[in-house]
Amino acid sequence: MTPEEIKQVNKTDRTKGYTPWKPIVLEQIRTELAQCKKEKAYVLDYGAGVALPHIKLLRKLFPQHHFDAYDCGKNVTDSHVRSLQRDFYDFVFASNVLNILPHAKIVVNVLDEMLDALKGDGILVCNFSSNPRKPWHKLSYRGGSAELFRMLNKRFATVRLLNDNMISPLFGCAYKFT
Ligand SMILES: C[S@@+](CC[C@H](N)C(=O)[O-])C[C@H]1O[C@@H](n2cnc3c(N)ncnc32)[C@H](O)[C@@H]1O
Fold this sequence. Notes:
Layout (H helix, E strand, L loop, with lengths): L2 H9 L12 H12 L6 E5 L6 H9 L4 E5 L18 E6 L9 H14 E10 L16 H12 E6 L8 E7 L2
Parallel strand pairs: 1-2, 1-3, 3-4
Antiparallel strand pairs: 4-6, 5-6
The structure holds S-adenosylmethionine.
């Protein structure tokens, strides 16, 4: 991303005054962790924001698991990891991140970065909210969610639409292609 694009995406963090939305990704990752059989799962919140609302709650609910937060530009604090390790996480989630990215090329980069950080049997949970969806976002146009669905299907053996809503989808993806 260019420095200008990083500034744009940083501003979308709700703790900086952006419109709040339903935490559907958080609800889903809570369900996944409640069912998780691993003694210690490694979990990444990609595009976590500055105040880490999701991670703070999840750490209280699941103290046995390990949580990392990742962000970029000025939204990175001492509580965030600076870089991502390959094949490291059992779960990666991105709440309201893909829909605020400047253009489709960056969506591809972000998907590949999250894929890289996931273990082979890891699970990705991400949404693609229709509101807000940035007007400059090429995937905003009709069919944007279907395009994202195609991108995910190229990267994972299993891609499930979890909320029965292709306008504002919530996806659960497993078994990445390496
Ligand atoms: C709308 S906020 C969502 C914050 C939080 N996940 C939530 O649901 O409240 C989007 C966040 O994604 C971050 N972000 C966007 N693109 C990113 C990238 N390529 N790498 C890391 N973080 C990114 C932004 O800086 C911003 O903090």
